[in-house]
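Subject: for your reference before the review

Hello V.,

The reviewers asked for a structural picture of the protein, and I figured it would be easier to keep everything in one thread rather than splitting it across files. Below is the amino acid sequence we used in the manuscript, unchanged from the supplementary table.
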Amino acid sequence: MQLNRADVVTGALTLLDAEGLDGLTMRKLGAHLGVQAGAVYWHFTNKQALLEAMADRIVESVGDEPFPPAPWDAQLSDMAQRLRRALLSRRDGARVVAGTYVIEPNTVRSGQQALRILTGAGIPADRAPWILFPLFHYVLGHTIEEQAQRAEGDWENRNAGLPDDELNHAMTAMISADPADRFTYGLELFLDGLRHRHQEGPA
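And here is what came back from the structure prediction:
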């Protein structure tokens, strides 16, 4: 069966789950697919191009369904939660997406939806990206750290080196909390600030 572009991306994501981002190479991918590396390069001129296609596949679920009718801030929260879940669905998913600037169908569709949420709330289109990029960076940064914690499992060991004082207890409480709760708390802080700014006037 002839190898197509979608097959390469699917194989790359499977290899990503098995090897992690650092273990993903074009040569390994070719071996995984049962072809020479040149067959992979036929579809993707370099690894960066492959990563961009992988990133677009990872975020496919973010915008594949319309957002239900709701206030703009609830829809924006829903989008951020969808993005986090999509990133967590793949090993090192957040690192893959963070290292790309993608102009592919799934990414563009999600961007258009996010833009409509904000412009529908009265935020000017030329100002909306100033909101969306910090939000996107928060989701990426939190999820990168979350996946690193899962991979290494050493936060507790590092925390043990802190003096047995207030900082130690505070860090222990934070580390032991559900990552989803930590994420939602930070997301609400972001949205609280945005609501306040939006109520005062143009963002």
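For the response letter, the relevant points are probably these. The mean pLDDT is 90. The chain is about 70% helix and 0% strand.

Happy to draft the paragraph if you're swamped.

O.
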